[in-house]
Structure formats: structure tokens, C-alpha cells
Design a protein that fits this description.
Chain lengths: 221, 221, 221, 221
DNA sequence: AATGAATGAGATTTCATTCAT
DNA sequence: CATGAATGAAATCTCATTCAT
């Protein structure tokens, strides 16, 4: 019967600040030790709380793990939804999404590590409320891609889901590498390279430069 | 003091067949239960061996985990190296690599699950001999991409490492989805869609429609 | 520093009504969950008080347990002592005690369960003030039995303590069965059967029925 | 897959002797500390085994508790069934049962304490296989009592179940007292007193002495 | 007087791993 | 070679209890 409680991403908390502290500590420790190797004692020490207190806030170690993305992903997606309408053009929107996506991980390395190395491999995460938001943020991509197909910014013979899978796969691959190997230094600056490739592909564009066209035609004769 | 031992991916085995049985059992169990949840007892039961026997073949549960990709990845890369020279054109080679890559996972769902959900998140895997082969198979991609850049099949302003990251990211994203969600049904048939997108990009190509082509051809004569 | 306190079975209470509420809640919860399984939180919830409040009234969970019989047993024994003198004959007095004893438990099933399944097995209960009253109520029996021996209502070759043990054992056995198995439906109606058996025993009484007497007498001649 | 196991009261044991040792140690420790207070570590130490070993033999602390009566009660009831047929007369049989019953506890004080103070209050014990045997040993009593009623050794207006309840209640009350208070010194020697009271009751028998018989006979004529 | 919040203190239980046979 | 049996070493989680407000 808590007389006065607060909400932290859907959870009633006695002291929401302490809840956030614990989550941050968990993020830090999980990122460094992995889920199994990290102990609740480690997290308690890092958060300067007792182990029992952690269980006052989270019913299990796994629930604490799943609490890590909850707040972050919510804010992330909220802001995306807020800004997207102000951007003109599907390509620009896509570039924005990709940049935000990379920046999210680039700015929160521990968070990135937890998501890429721990959460992604945990099937229970799929049942999570946070995962719902992940899915809704995936829809951002599909919608933008479809928008681009409609207004002929993008080719009409592409498969939006596959495009989204490629973009996410690319980003996740790069972020995972960064978590594991520490490179590249700056993830966010890859935005343009990724966009260019996604937009233009590998094959040289016929007519993109007259010179190349000529060469090609002649060689084929 | 084994009188007669055999090699199984660099390891001396008393009975190489039993070693392989254990690895297969481990693959099966890990794929279903995850690394931590799966017990050595589970694997022993599945392999119809005693737990102690497993320790005759592998010094730890984690070593057993790392043994799973060892043989598979070796054969995979060996065959790649063998066939690649017979394929003409960088684009064709890339298509071949992508198809092989997808088929590897499509044909071995348990293997796919273990690699995507368990091994990818384990930093220790990076120290593994198997990971060396993974890296060498990554080089296939870079080499082929560089080849394509040289002979103008591919644009020269691309970043081979990024392209490879995109392709791998795409494949791993799709395979992970398949492991977790069970779809799409057939991974391997995505090869063409992936290649087309990678090759041509999202932006409509000025020479993509026949009319434009005609114009082009005429103008070059 | 309570400004105005009250007594509840020898304990100073800030608010005697709340103390009784807590005891009743404890009785209810302990009866259903057992001592160890029941948590102070359970009791607090049932009593609609905070856990901390419980500790304002009782210094420990065990003290709360021991508080359950305190008031009940006091009133029970008080009334016994009050009424007994008005009953004529040791047999009648015994019948009265047995009936009261059974009715006490029959009328308070939760109380019965707590006493039979929890308190009886707790050696610390013996040190309790309540246990003193239990003992004094046991003396009722012994005194009545001795009275019956003196005035030849009862045989003189019996052992009062054993008789009392038999009666108590019988009652406790029946009450325990009722707590655990739910039968028989009505404990109090067993009074007569118990008394008859205790009074007359199993062996057929010579002369109890004329017919048997004749037979017996003839055969003995 | 144990190749060679043994049975200990229905349970497959790796090493039946060690299983029995653990049970004995548990009996000892539980009798002294109670179920909750006793730790598995205590029992392990007493049995000179590791805690883990205990869990190789018993899946939980409670299962270990329930294992305590298993073997004892089985042998007890087996022997009862074996000997009963050789005893003439229901009264003699009853005396035998009561004596055996008391002796069982008198000879095994720790066992008595565990049964009386711990097991009796545990509702889960009712679901136990051992409890089935307890019930079957209760049937001994009812059968003997019914036999006595048939052949007129016992009065025909008694309720066998109640008689049995009285006898068991008496015994359990006495054994519980012995466990808690340490007296009386010798339980088994109470057999005769109990039997006499049960057989003859409290009320002086009008035909118990020849003189009274005469009186009766005359008066009935 | 009442309680929300925090925690100290363990106990049970689980397994990977070892070793004698 | 194989394995049955034993265990060391922890880690999660639970609660009774305390204390500041």
C-alpha cells in the first residue's frame, strides 16, 4: 500500500531516482562483466545500495536487465516521432533516422554493449514492453521507406522490410564491432557513408558521369 | 596417454566420432536452452555419454561451446576459397558469397541460433582459433569488393570495409530474426533481393528505364 | 512514551483494539500458511497495518504467535473456574470440561489450527505466560478426577495424570484431525461418546444388562 | 543413467548406506533444532557429507524430512502385520499394538521428537507415501477393535474410530510430553495403565467385585 | 502513533568440475 | 576409455527487523 509512489517507465517506484541509479549501475556492470558473470552484489556495490534494496525495485536480476533499455528507448522513440514530421523528403528522413540510431549507441557505449551483446541474444526480451517500443521504432523506417517509394525518391521495386533489415543489420553490426573491438572510433560519422551506399548501391550509375558511360558502351562492342 | 588419437579441429581426440557427437549434442542443447541454462548434464544426456566423458574431450563448458563452429566454419571457408577462383566477375563472386553465407545458416538452424544468440555476444570467442577463420572468411568479401572496384564493376568511391559490414550485418540480422521469430521461412532465397539492393541502391537509376537506356545507347554511338 | 496505554494480556498497548486486530490477523494467516511460510507482510496486509506497526505492538514474529492464545486461554480458564463450582458430581464436571474444551476449538477453527499445528510443536511456547494458564487449566482436570476418586464416583486405582493425558490426547487428536482433514463436521457432539468410553471402558460390564448377567452368573457357577 | 542403484524406501540411491546416514543425521539435527532452524549445512556436517551430496540424495530439505519416517514406519507396520495373527484375543492384540506403538517412540527419542513436533504439523506430510503407511497402521487398531466387538470381548455400543482416536491421542500426547518435557522416564511401561483404563473405564464396575455381582443378580431377579 | 524505505544476514539450491575405479 | 559419485563455490532471493520522519 504505497501512499505516494512514482512512475519509472511503467513501474511504480518508492524512490524513482534510486531506481534510475540502480539501472545505471546495472548497465555499467553488465556491460563490463556480462549478464551471468555480473552479480547482483556487484551492481549493489556500484549503486551504493544493498542487494536487498535492488530486489525492492526489481523482482529479479533479469527484470533489472530488461529495465535498462526501457527508459532510454522510450525517450528515443518519442523524440523520433516528434522530429520526423519536420523533415522534408524520405531520403532526409532516413538519413536522420540512421544518424539518430548510430548516435544513440555512440553516445551510450555501455548501453550499446548491453543491448548488442546481452539483450539481443535473450529470447525473453521479446516479451518485454521495451521490445514493443523497439518494434514501433522499426516501423519508423518502414514508413519512411514506403513514403520514399510513393513519391519516387526511391525505386518502386524494393522491399521495405528488407531495406530496414539491411539498415538495422548494418548499424547493429557496426555497433557490435565497436563494443567488442573498440573501433571505429566514431560511429556517428558513418552516417553519410551508409546513406550513400544504401541510396546509390555498388554499381556505377549509367549516366551518372558521361565518361563512364562511354567507356562501358565501347568496351561491350 | 591415448594410444591412437585423431584430430578434430586441432584437438587430439581419443575417439573423434564421439567428440563430434558431443559437439552436435551441445549445438542442439545450447540452441534450445542458451548457454547458461543448458547444463553439462543436459548435453551428456543428449549425447548419451556421461558428464565426465565430456570433460575427457573438452576442458570446459565454454570450450565445448567454442568447438561448435570450429569444424563447420573451417569447411565452409575451405570450400569458399576453392570455388571463388572459378567465378567470373566481382558481382557474381559477391552473389556467391552471400548465397553461401545465407545457406550456411539456413541449412543449420541450431548452428545459426548458437552463433547468433550465444557466440556473438561472448567476447572470449574473439580469442578463439575459430574466430580467426571467421576473420579470414570476412576477407573474402573485402577482396572481392576491392577486385570489383579495380575493374570498375563497382564504384570506386565506396569503402570496402563498410560494404562488408553492411552485407554481414544484413545477413546476421536476418538470421537472428529467423532464430528468434522463425521467419522468414526461407533465408537463402533472399540472396537476389539483397544483391540487387546492394548493387543498385534505393535511388532510382537514371538509366534504369528502357527509354533512358535507348537514349544512352544511341548517344554513345 | 505512550500517554495513555491499555493492557492486553499483560502487555501495554498504545491502542488495544489495534493490538487485537493484529493478533486476529496473525491467527488467520498463520492458520492458513504456517508459521514460517506466513510473512509479517502477509499479516500486516490482512490487519491493514504497516509491518512497522506490528513491531510497535509485538517485538518479534514469534511473540506475535504466542500472543494468539493469550487472551483466549485466559478467558477460557476464567470461565471454567467460575462455573465449575456450580456443577454437582465429578463425572458431570468432567463432562463439562470436555465439552468446553472441544467447543473452544470447534468454535475457533483458526485458533485450533494455530494451536495444534504450530504452537504445540514450538518448545519456546513452554516458557510462555500463556502456557502457565494452559497448565492451570490442566489442573482443572486432575482436581476433578481426584474429587471423583475420593467420593467413589471413579475407581480408586486410576492414575489422575494418565486420565487427564488420555482426555487431552483424545481431544487434541480429534482437533488436529479436524484442522488437517476437515472432519468430523462437529467436534462438540463427540463429548458424550468420549465421556461414555472414558467412564465405562471397552469391556462389557457384568450386570450392565440383565440378560448378560444371567448368562455370566450361570457360567461362573 | 545409474547403472547400478539400490532402493531405500522406494527411492533409487547411488549408495543406500550413505542415504541412510544422511537420514539419520537429519533426524538427529531436526530433533534438536526444529525444521526451520536446522540448516542443511548442519545436517551435512553431522552426516560428514557435503551439502551438495545431500541434494544428490534428496531433492529438497523437506523431502529429506519426509524420508525420516519412511523406512522406520514401513518396518514397524510390516512387523505388526506379521505378528498380530499369532495373538489370541482382541484385548491382547490391542495391548500388543499399544505396546509396540509406545515402544517405537520410546526406543527412538529423536524419531519421536521429529514426528511429534515437526511432521505432525506439516500438512504436506499427508501427501506422503509414508503417511499412507501410517494410515494402514491405523487400520490395525480399527480392525482389532471391530474383532473385539464381534466376539463380545468389547462392548458393542462403542465407536471403533473414536476408540482408535483415543488410543492414538493418548499415546501421542504422552510422547509429545516426553519429547518436550522429558517425562515420564519410561513410556513403554505405561502400556498396562493405558490398557486397563481403556478396557475398564473410570466408573467402578458394579460387577467388578464378586460381591457386587451378587447384589446385582439378586436385584435383577 | 504510524509507516515507508532500507538492509543485514543467511539458507537453499545449482552445477561445473574432479577423481578413483 | 568411461563414468558414478562427490563436492566446492557461489549467487539469487527472502524476510524479519530497524529507523528516520
Amino acid at each position: 500500500m504505497p501512499a505516494k509512489t512514482s512512475k519509472y517507465n511503467g513501474k511504480s517506484f518508492k524512490n524513482p531516482k534510486k531506481g534510475a541509479t540502480i539501472v545505471k549501475a546495472a548497465e555499467h556492470v553488465f556491460a563490463r562483466k556480462g549478464f551471468q558473470t555480473a552479480t547482483v552484489a556487484d551492481i549493489a556495490k556500484k549503486a551504493r545500495v544493498s542487494e536487498a534494496t535492488i530486489y525492492e525495485y526489481f523482482s529479479s536480476k533479469e527484470e533489472l536487465l530488461f529495465a535498462i533499455p526501457a527508459e532510454t528507448i522510450r525517450q528515443y522513440q518519442e523524440k523520433n516521432r516528434e522530429i520526423l514530421p519536420y523533415i522534408r523528403g524520405a531520403a532526409n528522413k532516413l538519413r536522420f533516422l540512421i544518424h539518430r540510431h548510430l548516435a544513440l549507441y555512440a553516445d551510450n557505449p555501455d548501453y550499446a554493449t548491453v543491448v548488442m551483446l546481452i539483450l539481443k541474444g535473450n529470447p525473453n526480451f521479446l516479451k518485454t514492453e521495451s521490445y514493443q517500443i523497439v518494434q514501433s521504432s522499426a516501423r519508423n523506417y518502414t514508413e519512411v521507406i514506403e513514403e520514399g517509394m510513393k513519391n519516387n525518391e526511391f525505386r518502386s521495386d524494393i522491399e521495405p522490410h528488407l531495406i530496414r533489415a539491411m539498415i538495422w543489420g548494418t548499424i547493429e553490426h557496426l555497433v557490435t564491432r565497436k563494443s567488442l573491438l573498440g573501433k571505429p572510433e566514431d560511429l556517428a560519422e558513418l552516417t553519410d557513408d551508409i546513406c550513400n551506399t544504401i541510396f546509390s548501391g555498388l554499381t556505377p550509375q549509367q549516366g551518372a558521369s558521361p565518361i563512364q558511360v562511354d567507356v562501358r558502351v565501347h568496351s561491350s562492342e
